[in-house]
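can u pls check wat happens w/ zinc ion
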Amino acid sequence: MAKPRLKVIPLGGLSEIGKNMMALEYEDDIIVIDSGLMFPSEEMLGIDLVIPDFSYLLEKREKIRGVIITHGHEDHIGALPYLLPQIDAPVYSTKLTQGLISVKLKERKALSGARLNVISPGGSVMLGRFKVEFFPVCHSIPDAVGLIIHTPVGIIVHSGDFKLDYTPVSGRPTDLSRLAQLGAQGVLLLLSDSTYAELLGYTPSEKVVGETLDHIMAEASGRVIVTTFSSLVSRVQQVIDSAAKYQRRVFIVGRSMSDTVHMALDLGYLNAPDGILARLDELKGMPRNKIVFVTTGSQGEPTSALVRMANRDHRQVHILRGDTVVISATPIPGNEALVNRTVDNLFKQGARVLYGKVAQVHVHGHGSQEELKLLLNLVKPRFFMPIHGEYRHLSLHAKLAQSVGIPRENIFVLEDGDILELDSQGGKVTGQVTSGNVYIDGLSVGDIGSVVLRDRKMLSKDGIVVVIIAINKQTGKLVGRPDIVSRGFVDTRESKDMLDESRDLVARVLDRGGTRPAEWGFVYSKVRDTLNRFYYEQTKRHPMVLPFMIRV
Ligand SMILES: [Zn+2]
Ligand SMILES: [Zn+2]
């Protein structure tokens, strides 16, 4: 009898940036790698977050031996608060990652009952038939790891998110010697990060950002406000180091930033010289050139401290003329407009703003082409599967693999939900599982259907028209002319005649039915259809038409 094959099932992160999640399944054992979220794109109006569809995992929940998290970024941990309450599986991660997971779970009230386990880089854990070993990788967050997974069909290497910075701020550089050793031993499959597969050459070292920050702290005559991701602990470290050199004190502003900073200090991932961190009540009277703020808001998030400051809406901190604001992050695709608006507002308040396009205040955490090739060359996998990226990134990464000698038929470019069945001889996609987006809107999970999204899109594009129809309680006949109120559709003064005409049209349509009181469902669709057609003819737009009936 043929030996069972291993199933590799990406549930998120392929053909998209974000919500990374993958399942490995061998007979009765499943391990899950990462459980991330994605920030919504501009078409997903009013949606706060997007997480993967976990249906497949829920069906097989009793087989799940563990959830392994490669590092503490939102696109790897953000869906845990929604996954863990539904499956009873332990979570394995490094120490800092566990700290960030706890902060996240606590925020969403999902911490109690969670079984969080710490594995150090270099350590390993047995989960059913899988032995999972962590190896350190360098990324834009400390304590990130890649995985060496020993399976019954062979060794799998999962890169996590990585780059090859030889002078990282904190944490260790990627463990190349362990990978080379495995390459000599024989690796069946490499799964590798494709996020920056478009970029030639090497990703610059974090060191470059440190130098820029030093420069800014030295020459700014006013206060310096640095904004970044709260999880970018190494960037916060760079700010603290720079501030220390120029005798500035550091104020951490905003709850999520200060939660993360305190956690990282407690766990020893951040080092702050005594007395450098200050409380906001110490701000008064301090010379401006001795002040640094660290805050969130690098993505233009409306509730973040920076955006509040930019809009003069922050209780304690206002932007002053002469402040230097450093945006130390690149906008996540979809957030560009929000970020640009924030930058504009900061300039309006009289600040000098430094961001990616005008200064080297950020380097990203993913390997460029030469680094990806180096990893392929060291690991020398028999089979290769690009992960983490849009389809173009995966395709380019596949090309890179071919260029270093991996035969085309040994490269699998998959999409979310594909089932790749693999053994030592070969692999192929044998089917699909349910996958896709689950939308999270405020506190509700998953009940935002495509209809709701379509409505929101329609409202934002063409506005809304409310038709108020007064009907006589006894006779069922129309009383007076219907009222029409519109928002976001046309300029009501300019288009007064057209709107008036539509009121008459509704009156005529409703007047036709004899003496019998009209059925509301009928009136509703009649009015809606008539107006949809009329407004489209007049304006080439499709406002949402909402008839309301009042009985008088
Ligand atoms: Zn990452
Ligand atoms: Zn990532």
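Residues 520-539 form the longest helix (20 residues).
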